[in-house]
Write the structure tokens for this entry.
Amino acid sequence: MTLTKRIIPCIDVDVDDDGTAAVYTGVNFEDLEYTGDPVEMAKRYNEAGADEFVFLDITASAEGRETMLDTVRSVADEVFIPLTVGGGIRTKADIKETLRAGADKVSINTGALNRPELISEGATAFGSQCIVISVDAKRRFDEEGEYYADVNGESCWFECTVKGGREGTGIDAVEWAAEAEERGSGELFINSIDADGTKEGYDIPLMKAVCDTVSTPVIASSGCGSPEDAYEVFTEANADAALAASIFHFGEYSIQETKEYLHERGIPVRL
């Protein structure tokens, strides 16, 4: 049986000056602009036929955590599709709190890089299906990596970054994806810092490198500007899901249009 490919809208959520959770959209994780109310957007995407929904707390400030969990509870009340929540999850207690607030899965980035044991602890306590490891990868054109890909005729590797791509870790993203799978991650959420917000297409060399290395489902993120880009990441990289934000947030394409485009070209999707 062929598994259907998933189309997943994502919202980046921060706390505004009034202490209210709000959605923001930017380019390369910078120049963020107010986009809307997270609960209203979640409700709209649930009704629009999204396969899943991703909620990312992009600052995860300590003072804003309870505000965010309250917002997660409100979002969970409005969506009846799998809900993934990420941002600031660093302990098993954080995972538990987020799942109790209504998330079906948690997305972990920095917390797992700092202490990889968190992956196996979470998988053992709550099930691998709950643990999504998020990788913010950035291209590097030097000889410090492990896995290399050809990017426009140049040899390139992908570095795991933190703090929205502003800080490198020296860790090879493909090698880390393989380790996360081995430790029990049920899914991998691969973000390209280079492609984020550009609408110029997914980072195919990055996505293909990860998909060729792991058997765990891969969500491709960053750079989607059209249904054609989703088609490309499914056919050229064999990603399991395509995540997008801007094209859906601003009404450039609908989820239904995107799925119909894919269906017409032989990609198995849930219509």
The two ends are 17 Å apart (CA to CA). The longest helix spans residues 65-78.
